[in-house]
Design brief:
The protein is α/β, with parallel strands linked by helices. It folds into three domains: 13-91, NAD(P)-binding Rossmann-like Domain (Rossmann fold, 3-Layer(aba) Sandwich); 98-282, Mur-like, catalytic domain (UDP-N-acetylmuramoyl-L-alanine:D-glutamate ligase), CATH 3.40.1190.10; 291-428, Protein-Tyrosine Phosphatase, Chain A, CATH 3.90.190.20. It has helices at residues 24-35, 56-59, 76-83, 91-96, 112-125, 140-146, 162-165, 192-204, 215-223, 255-268, 273-282, 310-317, 337-344, 358-367, 378-388, 410-423; strands at 17-20, 40-43, 64-67, 87-90, 102-107, 129-134, 154-159, 175-178, 210-213, 291-296, 299-303, 324-328, 348-353, 372-374, 394-397, 427-428. A seven-stranded mixed β-sheet has the order 14-13-12-15-11-10-16, sandwiched between helices.
Length: 431
């Protein structure tokens, strides 16, 4: 099978391509360029096997730059590339130009990974050739490279972050599902309006396709003067229990929201409702998503390390019938810490605070009368929580912030939490 190469790219690939960022996205772009018979040259300030600087003089050697989502639009290197006349494409845009299959794009502050994985699972259950890609850790460029651009019946279920969406120029989706919107990534987006507009670009790239928006997205669209088609609105909040979801991960909020969006898309696609419910019963959440991991002396320990924003923590706390012992904190992504603590205070029995944000969290906890302890790290937080817990208490790791101050990523944080819990002599929950 040979790649379909659009006219836009043909003259740009004659010269070497500058690839900004040496993480999974950048490596995927290099892999795809190799498949295309083009040469990529890697630039990354922190990677030993990459070029560390990109100057105006160097920019003149390139016609195309492909950059990872971690590069904001005003990054010095991108400014130099644009000034030199280079075409600058985000990794998702570059891959999208070469994909021949269907794209279902998923975004949202929370739930987008679960919805991406569930729709992929459900489509596979009914015999469709579907693959989860994008922000789930398997870049779209890698999927395109691995499938030689795919064929018309391949379905890419593509998770799209705000960092990816804000740079889109050529990416096209056949469907776009937007789960929710709440405070997040305000360290990069200067306001909630800017954060909303970054994600809205995904709807702009779904011309003529199916777009679906959860309840909170509808509220923000009205506030910011964006008009959603009536058929795009899906009621995802405060919906009644569905007996057919009993025993599934979608039986309770916050996961119920994901199923409601999936079910609406599924119906629009003309697929069997019974098949979707069957898929819901066989679907299992990925790790680090409100997972019950151990029990010790009647105390249950929960790993929700993927909760990297306030909205995710609030969703996790709503799962419990009473206050919990909460391990909270990490690297700030902006947002109203006092406002967050004021909302969750009734649901916290005691907070164990870690990371860069522990002092600001402590100030807010004091203000709203939340018992709390400052901890030097996750291990101390686990130890102190276990010493404080009694009876049938729940100890919940739901940090609400990025992991990058103390850990490689949220998976590393969750893994360390489980290791520290096991050292207490807790009995692991087998899944």
């Amino acid at each position: 099978m040979s790649f379909y190469l659009p006219e836009l790219l043909k003259p740009l690939l004659v010269q070497p391509v500058a690839v900004f960022g040496g993480g999974v996205s950048g490596q995927a772009v290099l892999s795809l360029l190799k498949k295309l018979g083009a040469r990529g040259e890697l630039y990354d300030e922190k990677q030993s096997d990459a070029r560390r600087e990109f100057s105006a003089a160097q920019a003149k050697a390139y016609r195309l730059v492909v950059f990872s989502p971690g590069f904001p639009l005003d990054h010095l290197w991108l400014r130099a590339a644009r000034a030199a006349g280079c075409t600058c494409l985000g990794e998702l845009d570059f891959a999208g130009l070469l994909w021949r299959g269907t794209v279902i794009a998923i975004t949202g502050t929370n739930g987008k990974t679960t919805l991406t994985e569930f729709l992929t699972h459900a489509l596979k259950q009914v015999g469709r050739s579907a693959k989860a890609t994008g922000n789930v850790g398997y870049p779209f460029s890698q999927l395109v490279a691995d499938t030689d651009g795919g064929v018309f019946d391949n379905v890419a279920v593509c998770e799209v972050s705000s960092f990816q969406a804000e740079t889109l120029l050529h990416f096209r989706a056949d469907s776009a599902l937007w789960t929710n919107l709440a405070e997040d990534h305000l360290e990069r987006h200067p306001s909630m309006r800017a954060y909303f507009e970054a994600k809205w670009r995904l709807f702009d790239r779904t011309v003529g396709g199916v777009i679906l928006a959860g309840t909170s997205v509808q509220r923000f669209a009205a506030e910011f003067g964006r008009v959603l088609p009536v058929e795009a609105a899906v009621a995802t909040e405060d919906q009644p229990a569905d007996v057919l979801l009993a025993g599934t991960v979608f039986d309770h909020y916050p996961q119920r929201e994901n199923f409601l969006l999936a079910a609406t898309w599924w119906q629009r696609a003309g697929l069997s409702e019974a098949d979707l419910y069957a898929a819901a019963h066989s679907f299992k959440l990925g790790r680090h998503r409100l997972a019950r991991v151990a029990v010790r002396d009647g105390v249950t320990y929960w790993n929700d390390s993927k909760a990297t924003n306030f909205h995710a923590v609030e969703g996790a706390l709503s799962f419990f019938t009473g206050p919990v012992l909460l391990i909270l904190g990490g690297k700030s992504k902006g947002g109203d810490v006092p406002g967050f603590i004021s909302r969750v205070a009734p649901r916290i029995k005691h907070a164990f605070l870690i990371g860069d944000t522990r002092d600001s969290l402590a100030e807010a906890c004091t203000r709203f009368h939340v018992p709390h302890s400052l901890c030097t790290g996750l291990q101390e937080a686990v130890q102190r929580a276990s010493q404080t817990a009694v009876g049938a208490d729940h100890v919940l790791l739901s940090p609400g912030f990025s992991s990058f101050d103390l850990f490689r990523n949220y998976e590393d944080r969750g893994n360390q939490f489980e290791q520290f819990v096991n050292k207490l002599g807790a009995t692991p929950i087998l899944t």
